[in-house]
Amino acid sequence: MARKARQEADLELVTLYEVGKILTESLDLQRTCRDTLNVLAAHLGIERAVVVVMHENGHLHLLSAVGLTPEEALQCRYAPGEGITGRIYSAGTPVVVPDIANEKLFLDRTGALARAKKNKQVMAMLGVPLKIGRRTVGVLTVHRLADGGGRSFNDDLRLLSMVAHLMGHALSLNRKVTEERSLLERETKRLHRELRGTRFAPDNAIGTSKRMREVFAEVERAAAGRSTVLLRGESGTGKEMIARTLHGLSPRKDAAFVAVNCAALPETLVEAELFGHEKGAFTGA
Predict the structure, then answer these.
(1) Terminus-to-terminus CA distance in the chain, angstroms?
(2) Which DSSP string do the residues of 231-270 spell out, in sequence order?
(3) H or E segment at 75?
(4) Which DSSP category does 100 fall into?
(5) Are 285 and 221 in contact (CB under 8 A)?
(6) Do residues 168 and 130 make contact, with C-beta atoms less than 8 angstroms apart?
(7) What is the mean pLDDT of the chain?
(8) Model-level pTM greater than 0.85?
(9) pLDDT digits (tens, 9 = 90+) for 171-218
(10) Contact 244/258 with Cβ under 8 angstroms?
(11) Which one of 21, 24, 143, 234 is most buried, counting C-beta atoms within 10 A?
């Protein structure tokens, strides 16, 4: 008896170790949950296992499963309170059904009962809620033969509860990473829109006369070169807008554009900069 208890304890420990390692290997929750279910199936002799999580449409949808055909997997959808799975979600408590053939709430959407009757088997169902904190977000259910190879329902239910706890942590981490990634993408798009908004494009300029079209053509030619460009004009004529366009069309468009208010600079500083260099240091275009 003591030897069997040690074997059961060792099996649980190995199972939890492998599950914990799998769930921390990747953020691909669908794959890691499927691998976790495969471990449970191998260690506990489970016929089939299913993980469903609450979708934004208010229904529980399949996340991962083992032992189901693709057609059967499509049927894994439940409303809160619907069937055994829906009851586990709504109540947030584990459930053991020793014989699904004697349970009226069992919906048999995936054909488990029909298969058991065909094979003359007594099939049991165990289910535990997946939680993030105190909030239930999904359900883990398994089907196994009622005799369980000598394992008791309480032993399996305890192990499934611990596995569900680890899955809940993995699901919480996955959602946080997804939210942060989504936030980063939105912020990146916002910054791109702002950057595009600071660049003046000739198409947005007011002016369709022949002379303005000539100005735009000169801007495009000047932007391709590396020469310094001097823009002259009265206040309010759009010199800074043209300068932004030159920058946006130039090879240096990915660098910062810095606008300096020359009128605010001391006259002596301007003279020192202009005349303190050799002749020809500044070129115009």
Answers:
(1) 96
(2) ----TTS-HHHHHHHHHHHSTTTTSPP----GGGS-HHHH
(3) none
(4) G
(5) no
(6) yes
(7) 83
(8) no
(9) 999 888 888 888 888 888 877 766 655 444 455 556 667 777 777 778
(10) no
(11) 143
Please give the distance of CA 153 from its chain centroid, rounded to a whole number.
36
Residue 151 backbone phi and psi in degrees, to 5: -80, 140
Query: By the 8 A CB rule, do 112 and 104 touch?
Result: no
Report phi then psi at 105, rounded to 5. Answer: -75, -15
Higher pLDDT residue, 52 or 12? 52
Asked if residue 145 lies in contact with residue 124, where contact means CB atoms within 8 angstroms, the answer is: yes
pLDDT per position as a tens digit, 71-127: 999 999 999 999 999 999 999 999 999 999 999 999 988 888 888 888 888 999 999
The amino acid sitting at 193 is R
Q: Given CA atoms 93, 97, 103, 109 in this order, what sign does their dihedral have?
A: positive
What strands lie across the sheet with 77-78, from one edge to the other?
77-78, 60-66, 48-54, 135-145, 123-132, 95-97
pLDDT at residue number 221 = 82
Give the integer Cα–Cα distance in Å for 145 and 152. 11
Alpha helices (H) in 199-236, listed in sequence order? 210-223
Interior CA angle at 223 toward 192 and 202, to 5°? Answer: 60
